[in-house]
């Protein structure tokens, strides 16, 4: 039975943390509803259970960066939904609300970081000459954006919840919105970069390395590529929803609709986790995950060497096929950033 959020209001109470449902109304808490115990328990358990396969697969395939990003994101999701369970028990628990607000808001930032880490290796497997950007540039750009998004969301959440006046609280909400907008833009740009890379691969010549060819032809790798795109779209949908949710403020309709939250936040992130676990990049790349690695410290000569290696492999194949094919961009900086 739904509780009237405005029943039994007592605005003479100055410290809302001392409120109970017997002495105050839900309108004096952070939601106009009591979070569902069953639904939030489900997501708490779901994300907690998902940590184990990410941990095991990370060790087996040594996908350290990806594993750390996903596990941190999952731990934050668990903390966020566990906090909602605490709010179910006590709607006026501001500490639990602060934990939920920050943890559940920034958790997808780490999950998207794991997605970004995959693109650099995908570029290596298909051939760096087919990309406008080097793996290093791609990683630096999206990881920097991810970090700024994380910072804005965390700081904004802390300001919004600890504010003593409505003006400061709104400032915190605005900062959170800025972080979420940045995250959504980053994900959208990421999808555009992936689409552009895919078109260039169809029109260009792929890396002729036998192991890379074998990796590209595996069903699990193709399924991984599709699941990576689906996971990215799911996280993007969630980010757009959170922007719309916070845009209306803590008293807005979306903020106070738990069904929308569970479907467009919890279920979307859950879908992304299923995609990134069922078709784990370590399994998809096999032994090529480490072989396709790159360094943030990579220099121009490393890129030149990579192009020369691609050209040599192509020329060996052309001697056999008799086909004519242009060499990959001869100097670093031509066609790539």
Largest sheet features: none
Report the portion of residues in β strands: under 5%
Instruction: Measure the end-to-end span.
Output: 59 Å
Low-confidence stretches: 298-307, 325-334
Shape label: elongated
Number of helices: 11
Whole-number mean pLDDT: 86
Global structural class: mainly alpha
Order of helices and strands: HHHHHHHHHHH
- The residue fraction in helices comes out at over 70%
Give the radius of gyration. 24 Å
| DSSP strand count | 0
Subcellular location: Membrane
Membrane topology: Multi-pass membrane protein
GO cellular component, one term: fungal-type vacuole
InterPro entries: RTA1 (IPR007568)
3D architecture notes:
This protein has 337 residues and is mainly α. It has a domain at 113-295. Helix content is 71%, strand content 0%. It has 11 helices and no strands. Helix 3 packs antiparallel against helix 7, helix 4 (135-162) packs antiparallel against helix 5 (166-203) and helix 7 (219-247) runs antiparallel to helix 8. The chain is elongated, with a radius of gyration of 24 Å. It is a multi-pass membrane protein. This is Putative RTA1 domain protein.
Task: Give the SSE layout.
Layout: H1 37-61, H2 64-89, H3 94-126, H4 135-162, H5 166-203, H6 210-217, H7 219-247, H8 258-278, H9 281-285, H10 288-291, H11 300-321
InterPro entries: RTA1 (IPR007568)
Transmembrane segments: 37-57, 64-85, 97-126, 138-160, 175-199, 219-241, 261-289
Membrane topology: Multi-pass membrane protein
């Amino acid at each position: 039975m739904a509780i009237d959020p405005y029943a039994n209001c007592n605005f003479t109470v100055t410290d809302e943390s001392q409120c109970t449902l017997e002495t105050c109304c839900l309108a004096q808490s952070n939601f106009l509803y009591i979070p569902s115990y069953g639904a939030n328990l489900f997501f708490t358990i779901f994300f907690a259970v998902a940590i184990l396969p990410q941990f095991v697969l990370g060790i087996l395939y040594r996908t350290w960066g990806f594993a750390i990003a996903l596990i941190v994101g999952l731990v934050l999701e668990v903390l966020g939904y566990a906090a909602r369970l605490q709010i179910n028990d006590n709607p006026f628990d501001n500490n639990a609300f602060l934990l939920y607000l920050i943890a559940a808001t920034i958790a997808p930032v780490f999950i998207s970081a794991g997605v970004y880490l995959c693109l650099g290796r995908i570029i290596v497997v298909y051939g760096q000459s087919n990309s406008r950007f080097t793996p290093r540039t791609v990683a630096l750009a999206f990881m920097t954006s991810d970090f700024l998004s994380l910072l804005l969301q965390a700081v904004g959440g802390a300001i919004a919840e600890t504010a003593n006046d409505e003006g400061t609280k709104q400032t915190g909400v605005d900062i959170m919105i800025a972080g979420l907008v940045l995250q959504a833009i980053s994900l959208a740009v990421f999808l555009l970069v992936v689409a552009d890379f895919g078109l260039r691969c169809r029109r260009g010549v792929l890396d002729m390395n036998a192991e890379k060819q074998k990796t590209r032809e595996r069903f699990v790798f193709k399924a991984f590529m599709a699941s990576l795109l689906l996971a990215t779209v799911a996280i993007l949908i969630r980010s757009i929803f959170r922007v719309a949710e916070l845009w209306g403020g803590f008293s807005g309709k979306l903020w106070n609709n738990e069904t929308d939250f569970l479907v467009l936040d919890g279920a979307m992130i859950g879908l992304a986790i299923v995609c990134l676990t069922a078709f784990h990049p370590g399994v998809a790349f096999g032994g090529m995950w480490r072989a396709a690695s790159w360094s943030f410290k990579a220099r121009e000569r490393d890129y030149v060497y990579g192009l020369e290696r691609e050209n040599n492999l192509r020329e060996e194949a052309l001697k056999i096929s008799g086909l004519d094919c242009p060499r990959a961009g001869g100097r670093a900086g031509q066609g790539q950033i």
